[in-house]
Model the fold of this input.
Amino acid sequence: MSKAISRHSDIEQVTFQPAYPGSRAVFMAEVSTRKEMRQIQELFDMVGQLAEVVPVSHGTVMSYAVHVHGDTSLFGKIEWLLKTQFTFSLVERDFSAVTLQLVESLCAESDTELLDLPHCGICDEVDPFPTRATARLSNGKEEHLAYCARCSARHSHEEPAEMVRELVRRDRRRLRMTAETTVLLMPEMVEELQVAV
Ligand SMILES: [Zn+2]
Done:
């Protein structure tokens, strides 16, 4: 009977979705009217058909993180569109703690809401495009796991099943994969993307 208690964090099945390699950028623009807010939302809806887009802040300062898998010319096109449509816009060709601090300070000054982004289960670093996994525990609960690019990269040479095992082992939530845990790899959802803005 005590066995059941000690096994509450055992993982029965884990669905693993490695992050795609590629380049990231963060785009920020100040909007002063509802119309401008709609304009920028429409722009990034369009970008979302060509790349992965994650909203970072919503309000006077609108910001979006964008991840492309190959050709980065899309970044230059977005930058140009923002420059022509908005009085103030800014681009960071990366996503790092420094970028996040910059967005945070712009948001604080303008009373803009910073949106929730995934935190790494190992080092707590924020990463809008993490390696993800969903763990179904033996108690029937599900846990959503995320691992930042830096922590994932340490195990990127491993087979996917071994990689997820290593990441979960270092996760601060102390979940446990056993010999019986099944690992499902998410199929590639995004094929080679054609960039044609
Ligand atoms: Zn990490």
